[in-house]
Amino acid sequence: MKDFAELYLNIDSTTSTNRKIDYLSAYFEKAGQRDKLWVMALFSHKRPRRTVQMRLLREWAAEYADIPLWLFEETYHIVGDLAETIAKLIPPTEHKLDKPLHKWIEELSELKDKADEEKKRYILEAWKSQDSTERFLFNKIITGGFRVGVSQKTIVKALSNYLKEDPARVAHKLMGDWTPNNTSFEELLIHAEPGDIISKPFPFYLAYPLEGEPEDLGPVENWTAEYKWDGIRAQLIKRKGELFLWSRGEELITHQFPEFTSLLSQEGDFVVDGELIVCKDDAIRNFQDLQKRLGRKKPGKKILEEHPAALIVYDIMELNGNDLRNQAQSERREILKNWHRSLDSNMPIRMSHDLKFKSWDDAKELRAGARDKKAEGLMLKSKPGPYKTGRKKGDWYKWKIDPLIIDAVMIYAQRGHGRRANLFTDFTFALKDGDTLVPFAKAYSGLTDSEFREISSFVRANTIERFGPVCSVPPVQVFEVAFENVGLSKRHKSGVAVRFPRILRWRKDKKPVDINSLDDLKALIR
After folding, report:
1. CATH number of the domain residue 15 falls in
2. Are 162 and 28 in contact (CB under 8 A)?
3. Residue 59 lies in a domain
4. Distance between CA atoms of residues 326 and 386, nearest Å
5. E strand segments, 140-241
6. Is 105 a member of any domain?
7. CATH code at 501?
């Protein structure tokens, strides 16, 4: 645990990716195999299940710190992070107990079926034997809130340095639903080959946002264009008579979408990349319709009929055991088209269309009309480019349409986390609905640090009511809120849901009477 705490402090102290890679590589050199595996898991968001209720942690910490619970709760709301609050408030270390990271995590897992009193004894003894940083990390693991500024690409690079292996192979080995509870470091990275597990997906190739003009990419004839659909990225895999559907978040969702099991009747094996959507009566539906399918492990007959899923495929990485990723985009595209033609016509697979354009001006016109097609914009792909690993510039770009914009008023504010724990950074916005205000979106990005400080001063001076970390404020501050799309939704009080809301700017030049209405928002639905 001491080495893990040192690693965390080192990584947290720098913004340099190369230094983070060096710190991780050094840790992998000296750490035990189980600790290495748990660091990989924690940094990859594969956290252990929570076995202690957060309510109990707050009560025990207040008791151990010898302060009333209300004072602990007030402090927690100010600090904004439970793990940090506990680490700061409880008494100093009584005795040092040097226990490896994996041992702490395994013991926490064993608490799952224990009585609360036994859990309390263990947690208090742990707090008494850890220094401040170890306590903080221990609490983060308990609460399931461990996060650190390390990307998957950084972990892959550090492991490839340590193992002296190609980063692409390491990235592929790390794919899938492994956890430290079902594998070992050796099984995952030393002895196994990426193809050993037939369900294992390939690392996704991620597109870069197009930051300049498309003309900057060079001759238009070197590029293809497709619509960028508003679904979830997925890989569909058929190997050795079995079928697997993976989300980009490495979640196995095969059973949530039984429509695709029909592909088991097709000859040959394959791995295809595409966008999972809801498509009914040959029309692509909004993301809100797809949400009704997500998370349902066994969707019923009615949901399958009303919200049938389909996969819009736009790349193929493997065919009959042959890895195609190093072939040019144009070559893979032809292979994908031939594969798609071989499918029965009733399969829930749609081919992403090649959009025709002879100039970048033609491409701009296609992009401008994307929203009418229920698309988010265009994907631009270099014809000679291979299928790469992770987010790399050069071959794939997403060229999104301009966002939809509406003026709204702030009605709630919540404190942020980490370095912004003392600032209000999360806001709820409302629109006019007759003589009332109706909340329609939450957003937490788009302001500068100085604007966050200014709006935080306003919230502190004008709070009407407090609901834990959330404060209600007078509806006087107007903001321009941007979002990608909007659709009807029964899950929201407003009756609508917006996609990816964020603050575009603080409209100090406008008054609350100037904000838009709920009808204005509904008028944007396509």
Report:
1. 1.10.3260.10
2. yes
3. yes
4. 5
5. 205-206, 208-209, 223-229, 232-239
6. yes
7. 2.40.50.140
| Residue 328 CA: distances (Å) to CA of 196, 261, 386, 434 | 26, 30, 5, 57
How far is Cα 72 from Cα 55, in angstroms, rounded to an integer? 12
Q: What is the CATH number of the domain that holds 382?
A: 3.30.470.30
Those residues whose C-beta lies under 8 Å from the C-beta of residue 60, and which sit 6 or more positions away, are: 120, 123, 124
Count Cβ atoms below 10 Å from residue 37 Cβ, excluding itself: 25
Domain shared by 225 and 237, yes or no: yes
CB 38 within 8 A of CB 105: yes
Contact predicate 412/427, CB 8 Å? yes
Q: Are residues 385 and 471 in the same domain?
A: no
State whether 262 and 396 are in the same domain: yes
Are 448 and 518 part of one and the same domain?
A: yes
- 179 in any annotated domain: no
Q: Are 308 and 277 in contact (CB under 8 A)?
A: no
* CA atoms in the 13 A half-sphere facing the CB of 274: 25
| Contact call for residues 437 and 520 (beta carbons, < 8 A) | no
SS3 state at 413? strand
Domain that holds residue 235: 205-400
Tens-digit pLDDT string for the chain (526 aa): 999 999 999 998 888 999 999 999 999 999 999 999 999 999 888 888 889 999 999 999 999 999 999 999 888 877 878 899 999 999 998 888 889 999 999 999 999 999 999 999 999 999 999 999 999 999 999 988 787 878 888 999 999 999 999 988 899 888 888 899 989 999 999 887 766 688 899 999 999 999 999 999 999 999 999 999 989 999 999 999 999 999 998 889 999 999 999 999 989 999 999 999 999 988 898 888 898 888 787 889 999 999 999 999 999 999 999 999 999 999 999 999 999 999 998 899 999 999 999 999 999 999 999 988 889 999 999 999 999 998 888 999 999 999 999 999 999 999 876 666 678 999 999 999 999 999 999 998 889 989 999 999 999 999 999 887 789 999 999 999 999 888 888 888 898 999 899 999 999 999 999 999 999 999 998 7
Of 400, 419, 444, the residue that ends a domain is 400
- d(Cα 34, Cα 63) in Å, to the nearest integer? 34
Q: At what angle do helices 116-128 and 132-143 cross, to 10 degrees?
A: 150
Side chain identity, residue 190: I
Is residue 284 situated within a structural domain? yes
Strand partners, 377: 228, 400
Q: What is the pTM of this model?
A: 0.79
Q: Are 496 and 521 in contact, with CB atoms under 8 Å apart? A: yes
Q: Are residues 13 and 83 in the same domain?
A: yes
Given 110, 143, 176, the domain boundary residue is 143
